[in-house]
Design brief:
Elements: H1 12-25, H2 34-46, H3 52-66, E1 74-75, E2 85-89, E3 93-100, E4 106-110, E5 113-117, E6 125-128, H4 141-150, H5 153-187, H6 190-239, H7 249-257, H8 259-291, H9 293-312, H10 314-340, H11 342-348, H12 351-404, H13 410-452, E7 473-481, E8 487-496, E9 501-505, H14 512-519, E10 527-532, E11 535-536, H15 542-548, E12 549-552, E13 561-562, H16 563-568, H17 576-586, H18 588-593, E14 602-603, H19 612-625, E15 630-634, H20 642-655, E16 661-665, E17 677-682, E18 685-691, H21 692-701, E19 711-712
Parallel strand pairs: 9-16, 9-17, 12-15, 15-16, 18-19
Antiparallel strand pairs: 1-6, 2-3, 2-6, 3-4, 4-5, 7-8, 7-10, 10-11, 13-14, 17-18
Bound molecules: adenosine-5'-diphosphate and magnesium ion.
The site of adenosine-5'-diphosphate has 11 residues, from α14.
């Protein structure tokens, strides 16, 4: 078997080290998150010992996948020009071959240090350190598509060669007719006729084979391209910073989905430009060669006429495809909204209003589609008419020349009339292409809007990945407002030291949740800084922030799958035992016990069918299982009754270590037992901040003190 190597013991330490080293050697590679490393470790642990030799390559392959770097190319010996390379060496383990010295020694780097070796063990496997498939910061949707085609230029060149052959073979039919009329009939050369006919049969058959081969080549490339584009676009979507997310989920999803239209247009158009269009000119040249300039001019005039007809309809088609697409996106948005809010809709009885909005949008979309169809139909009919007229005129001019001179034969006229069809065929494609272009342009401009949204670690080329976080916060002159809204929060200064346990209280809409999201790095303030352990939050790699900070949102979202998958969320470092223990502790155990499937209980998309309290328990259990270093909890017990609240209180007290930072937004007095410091929000921001008891006392004394500026009562 290709991947088989004997006696290699790749350990988890090796893989961790390898992941780290690859990231530092190839700076553009992402730092792997704790979870990804654990996943790789688990793969090693799970490998069946009988297949272990095989698995070593598989683990490195998975590592490449985690780096989003495609599949590694394995070599049987190190390639000096490709160093540094990952080496899997029998009897040695996992190494990086860094260099070949002037003395002919290989410099090997391993988890325990460096070594020099003149000879390397036999049967080793070597792969170049992965090159990331880099998505640059300012990448646009357009460049993504152009890149996808340019990187596959080889395939397109092959397809063009195949098409060239097809087109040349197609010449055979026209030349055959010419020979038959000019040579065979006048001389009654039956032998020649048979030979020519067999030749043309072979040519037609060859054309079929080449066409099939071309479509196979293209099919694979298009499939691969689809996969690559959908991967990159979805990754881009996942990377959008939370405060940049557009309000309409439906519209956004429709915009993202529309990439298929652009892909399909870009491949068709590329083939048209590379293949069909140049051949129209070649056939025109052949006509000129056979029948002379006058006939060629007739065909050229009709060619230009058909082209003009195609382009004339362009503007109208453009307008209607654009508005049609925007209507279709809005329809999708409405659909998503209805599915999500079906309960509220039913209970409030306003279904009819939504229905009339739906009808209106459907009508709009249909009207636009109708207009586009009308335009393209007209263009198609006109171009068909032009083709017929061109044929008639060609025969007319050809016949006149044949009748008045010896420059053109009957065979020549027939050959030219067949060829003129080939010249005009690509022009006939233009109306269809223009419709596709309209759709693709509208979809591209939509997608471009998604690509303009800022990403996590926006404009940070090398996000920081500190080993460990302490949980120190400093907020300076922070101002944040949601898109197109007035300022939601402003904080002049807020210092939180590692290990502090803080509660935030305040009226609804005062910005408590927003503050927590800023501290979780989900939002970026429009001005000011959120420093986390002395580093700007946006400079720290998102995966590292997510690993370290346990943020429990106010509204817990569940994903379609099982209870287990929702609790683990890809976190594979949790043992079954831990999982069950924590579930029992948080009270989820009783939910599982009441269901025969237990942890494999099916959860539908968005967690429909799970109560608010249960969602909260699942969210809390999920958070505790992820073992964060910093805890940011937004109303963790809002939907729980007293009994569960007490449970949660005691489990949080037990799980949050003294050195870990806790910031808790709550309106439940009992949770204040977890904290020593209390921050009170008013409509204008923080109005009180200090030791819990002192602040509570102050609040009791003066219930009006919520008005006024931010006072530090630490000294009171
Ligand atoms: P709190 O948690 O204190 O109740 P929030 O931080 O959720 O308040 O909200 C602060 C303000 O920001 C409110 O006025 C709210 O309407 C607004 N807001 C919250 N979330 C969004 C959002 N996603 N888009 C626009 N405005 C929002
Ligand atoms: Mg809130």
């Amino acid at each position: 078997m290709d991947n088989l190597i004997e006696n290699i013991n790749v350990t988890t330490i090796d893989i961790k080290w390898l992941a780290e080293r690859c990231s530092s050697l190839q700076e553009d590679l992402p730092r792997l998150s704790r979870q990804m490393i654990t996943l790789l470790e688990k793969t090693i642990a799970d490998l069946d010992s009988t297949q272990f030799e095989d698995g070593d390559c598989a683990v490195v392959e998975q590592l490449f996948e985690a780096f989003d770097a495609g599949a590694p190319e394995w070599h049987s010996e190190p390639v000096p020009s490709a160093l540094p390379m990952i080496a899997l060496l029998p009897g040695v383990g996992c190494r990086i071959v860094c260099a070949l010295t002037a003395q002919g020694q290989w410099l090997l780097e391993g988890p325990d240090g460096n070594s020099y070796d003149t000879t390397l063990p036999d049967n080793g496997k070597y792969a170049q350190i992965p090159n990331p498939q880099k998505i640059t910061i300012n990448v646009t949707a357009r460049s993504l598509f152009i890149n996808a085609i340019v990187t596959r230029k080889q395939v397109f060149i092959q397809a063009v060669i195949a098409s060239t052959l097809c087109n040349l073979l197609a010449l055979a039919t026209s030349l055959y007719s010419m020979q038959v009329y000019d040579r065979v009939i006048p001389t009654q050369g039956i032998q020649t006729l048979i030979t020519l006919t067999v030749g043309v049969f072979i040519a037609v058959f060859l054309e079929l084979i080449i066409k099939k081969a071309r479509s196979l080549i293209m099919e694979d490339a298009v499939k691969e391209m689809d996969h690559e584009l959908s991967h990159k676009i979805f990754k881009r979507l996942l990377g959008i910073r939370m405060d940049q997310f557009p309000a309409s989920v439906g519209t956004l999803s429709a915009q993202v989905r529309s990439y298929e239209t652009i892909r399909s247009f870009s491949t068709t158009f590329t083939m048209f430009i590379l293949n069909d269009a140049p051949f129209a000119l070649l056939f025109l040249a052949v006509i000129m060669f056979i029948a002379g300039t006058q006939v060629a001019i007739v065909v050229l005039v009709f060619f230009l006429l058909a082209l003009a007809i195609g382009f004339m309809s362009r503007k109208r088609i453009d307008i209607h495809t654009k508005s049609g697409l925007s209507g279709a996106n809005r329809k999708m948005g409405l659909l998503v909204e209805v599915v999500e809010g079906a309960e509220s809709l039913k209970s409030s009885g306003v279904g009819w209003q939504i229905l009339s909005r739906w009808d209106q949008l459907s009508r709009m979309v249909m009207e636009d589609a109708d207009k586009v169809r009308q335009c393209s139909d007209t263009a198609n009919y006109l171009s068909a008419m032009v083709q017929q007229l061109s044929y008639v005129m060609l025969v007319c001019v050809g016949a006149y020349i044949a009748a008045t001179s010896t420059d053109l034969t009957t065979g020549g006229i027939i050959a030219c009339s067949i060829l003129s069809g080939r010249v005009l065929a690509p022009v006939g494609m233009i109306p269809g292409l223009i419709v596709q272009w309209g759709h693709a342009k509208a979809a591209l401009s939509d997608l471009e809007k998604v690509f303009l949204l800022e990403q996590d670690n926006h404009e940070v080329s090398q996000p920081l990945s500190p080993e460990k976080f302490q949980g120190r916060y400093l907020l300076k002159d922070v101002h944040f407002s949601y898109l197109g809204r007035p300022e939601a929060i402003s904080v002049d200064k807020l210092v939180i030291v590692p290990g502090e346990k803080i509660a935030i209280v305040g009226p609804i809409g005062s910005g408590k949740s927003t503050l927590l999201k800023l501290m979780a790095g989900l939002y970026k303030p429009q001005s000011g800084q959120v420093l986390f352990d002395g580093l700007d939050m946006q400079q720290i790699s998102r995966t590292h922030v997510s690993d370290a900070i346990g943020y429990l949102p106010q509204n817990i979202h569940l994903f379609g799958g099982t209870l287990r998958s929702n609790l683990l969320m890809g976190n594979s470092c949790v043992s079954e035992e831990d999982l069950l223990t924590i579930c029992q502790l948080t009270g989820l155990g009783s939910m599982m016990a009441s269901h025969p499937k237990g942890l494999d209980l099916t959860i539908s998309e968005g967690g429909n069918g799970v109560s608010g309290g249960q969602k909260q328990l699942i969210g809390l259990t999920r958070l505790i299982l992820s073992k964060p270093d910093i805890w940011l909890l937004d109303e963790p017990t809002a939907s729980l009754d007293e009994g569960f609240e007490q449970r949660v209180l005691s489990i949080l007290a037990q799980k949050i270590a003294p050195e870990q930072t806790l910031i808790l937004v709550t309106h439940k007095p009992v949770l204040l037992n977890l904290v020593q410091r209390l921050i009170v929000f008013g409509p204008t921001g923080i109005i009180l901040d200090g030791p819990r008891d002192a602040v509570l006392e102050r609040l009791r004394q003066n219930s009006d003190s919520a008005e006024g500026s931010h006072q530090n009562v630490g000294a009171c």
